[in-house]
Design brief:
heterodimer, A: 4-stranded antiparallel β-sheet, 14 strands, B: alpha+beta, Arc Repressor Mutant, subunit A, 3-stranded antiparallel β-sheet, 4 helices, 5 strands
């Protein structure tokens, strides 16, 4: 108690030095004056009385010096004494000491954490101009909690709200970087065009979004999410498998090779199902063909409607988890020597077989031959080969194409009944992993070590990455993926 | 008999101040100095100024308290008074001094008798 009071008194002495100094002066002067008065009472002359007082008192400056020393310097000296005393006391009570130290540590830690938080969140939250004007808006469903804002609501708010100078949407997710060897997942943030207005940010390189291109972005994305693509892209990886015409000059050799590839890939651990297709989902049909339903009035080739004509392996339906609506799917037994069969899609059935059962009907399509120079022959109206009658054996649910909102009539035939050099692989794994891509590539290399094939590895891409692309490219640029009317440059004779 | 003026012994000034304040109540520095001089009947040689560092020390230890107020002649002066712990300290120091004095007395008496 005494020590504490002494310490406090000395501490006060440090901070109130000037006042203390004045008080000391006044105190000593009063003392001297009283001495002088006393001496005058004794009958001394004023001058004598003054000198006598000074003598009795001793050196004033000396007294002051000792006094100041006591007041100031002694503080440091006794501080060490106090510290030593404190340490001694703490050593005597280790339990108390531990509790005190832990309490202090927790207190300091918590205070620091809270201060950091308050500093970051309240005092200096965002490195933008006027961060206090930026808010995040959620919806509160009746069930409680917070939910994300729907795209139509966002558009309404944007149009009707007068509270904010700008409203932007953002959505977090993962995108896949392709065309760089093995696909790489990148965490991404999809944002509306005006997003960068909100913090007032500028692109470090290039530019941020322009309002007209990318204003449609969020709507496109929203619609995209609403659409059932007709297949399940989860855990499906894809890769290109271009075949050299010199190496596989005819149908049987193409089929043989493709069968071997499928068998090899199917044997890779982690592969659930593998398929060959002329075109990947969301990447068009690979080829469009003029058709005529048998029994209908004859129409000139140039005036015939066109349907997608996709050559796939029988495993295609299961690999992509598409739904068969009617009849049967292409079977392994459908081959070069058997009846040509086709599975049409929902749109084809609705548009060209209105009210009639398409199963058992036959569709006449010109045989595909390798065009000598360009693929523009269909448009000019010259039939490239004899017509083949494809018997409809089933109807499959629409597989959405380059545009998710585009319904396009199409049919599937077996790659064995209409061989194609244009080959893509779609592989469903037990999980989606880059590791699987490597294993598949290794399996393919066991069959063919040609450089051309090696290069094909770079074409690997994932459906996940294609998800957004069609609407994106359609809205944002003039580029269009393979259109249904575009015939591939290299086709073999069947 | 030679009459000498003794130097104030180290540590005795504190006890003198405490005892003075105990006897006379609140007093300013001049009053304390005068009282000590009167009681000692001028046997003590003391610069009155040395009183002040002692008063500061005693105050820092919490044994005395000070307060500015008007003197009997309406002069502004700093008045010192004994605190509770100062009273305890006085009792302890007085006892210790008496013991020491007794020891000295016996020692000196013995030496005289030898």
């Amino acid at each position: 108690m005494t020590r504490l009071r002494m310490a406090l008194a000395r501490l006060a002495g440090l901070f109130q030095r000037k006042r203390r100094e004045q008080e000391l002066d006044e105190e000593l002067r009063a003392h001297l004056e009283m001495l002088v008065e006393e001496n005058l009472r004794k009958g001394m002359q004023p001058e004598e009385a003054w000198y006598a007082a000074l003598r009795a008192f001793g050196g004033i400056e000396q007294v002051k010096e000792v006094y100041r020393e006591r007041r100031g310097l002694a503080f440091i000296e006794t501080l060490f004494q106090d510290v030593r005393y404190g340490v001694r006391q703490l050593r005597h009570a280790p339990g108390f000491t531990t509790v005190a130290i832990v309490t202090l540590a927790l207190g300091i830690g918590a205070t620091t954490a809270i201060l950091s938080f308050v500093d970051a969140v309240l005092l200096n939250p965002l490195p933008y101009p006027h961060p206090e004007q930026i808010v995040i808006v959620f919806e509160e469903p009746p069930s409680g909690g917070l939910s994300e804002v729907s795209a139509p609501d966002f558009l309404d708010w944007k149009r009707q709200s007068t509270v904010f100078t700008a409203i932007a949407a953002e959505d977090w997710g993962t995108k896949t970087l392709t065309d760089a060897g093995v696909p790489v997942d990148l965490s991404s943030e999809s944002v509306s065009a005006n997003y960068f207005e909100i913090p007032g940010g500028k692109a470090q390189l290039g530019r941020t979004f322009a309002p007209d291109g990318a204003g449609l972005l969020i709507r496109s994305f929203y619609r995209l999410l609403q659409v059932n693509p007709g297949f399940d892209a989860a855990n499906v990886i894809t890769m290109g498998l271009p075949l050299a015409p010199e190496q596989y000059p005819d149908g049987p050799r193409i089929i043989n090779y493709q069968e071997q590839v499928l068998a090899k890939i199917q044997a890779v651990p982690g592969v659930r199902k593998a398929a060959i297709t002329q075109a990947l989902p969301l990447e068009g049909w690979g080829i469009g063909m003029p058709f005529l339903i048998e029994g209908k009035p004859f129409v000139n080739m140039a005036s015939r409607p066109v349907c997608g004509f996709k050559r796939v392996s029988p495993s295609y339906l299961a690999t992509l988890r598409m739904r068969l609506l009617k009849g049967r799917w292409i079977a392994e037994t459908d081959g070069p020597g058997t009846l040509p069969v086709a599975v049409i899609n929902e749109t084809m059935a609705q548009r060209y077989f209105r009210g009639r059962d398409p199963i058992g009907q036959r569709i006449l399509i010109p045989q595909i031959t390798r065009p000598p120079s360009s693929s523009s022959r269909w448009v000019t109206g010259q039939p490239p080969g004899p017509e083949i009658a494809w018997q409809v054996v089933g109807v499959a649910e629409d597989e959405k194409l380059s545009s998710l909102d585009l319904r396009y009539p199409a049919l599937y035939v077996s790659y064995k009944q209409s061989p194609t050099l244009q080959t893509w692989l779609a592989v469903r794994g037990t999980v989606r992993s880059a590791h699987l891509v490597k294993s598949i590539q290794a399996a393919v290399w066991q069959l063919n070590k040609y450089r051309r094939l090696t290069r094909s590895g770079r074409l690997m891409r994932s459906f996940q990455s294609l998800w957004v692309r069609p609407a994106w490219t359609r809205r944002c640029s003039a580029h269009s993926p393979v259109s249904p009317f575009c015939s591939p440059p290299s086709e073999s004779t069947a | 008999m030679v009459k000498t003026r003794a130097e104030v012994l180290q540590g005795t000034l504190d006890l003198m101040v405490l005892k003075t304040l105990d006897t006379l109540g609140p007093l300013h520095g001049y009053g304390i100095a005068r009282r000590i001089e009167q009681v000692s009947e001028n046997l003590l040689q003391m610069n009155q100024g040395t009183l002040y560092p002692a008063l500061l020390r005693l105050e820092q230890r919490g044994w005395i308290r000070s307060k500015w107020s008007a003197s009997e002649k309406n002069r502004r002066a700093r008045f010192y008074s004994l605190s509770k712990s100062g009273r305890k300290q006085l009792a302890a120091e007085a006892e210790s001094w008496e013991r020491m004095a007794a020891v000295m007395a016996r020692l000196l008496a013995g030496a005289e008798g030898a």
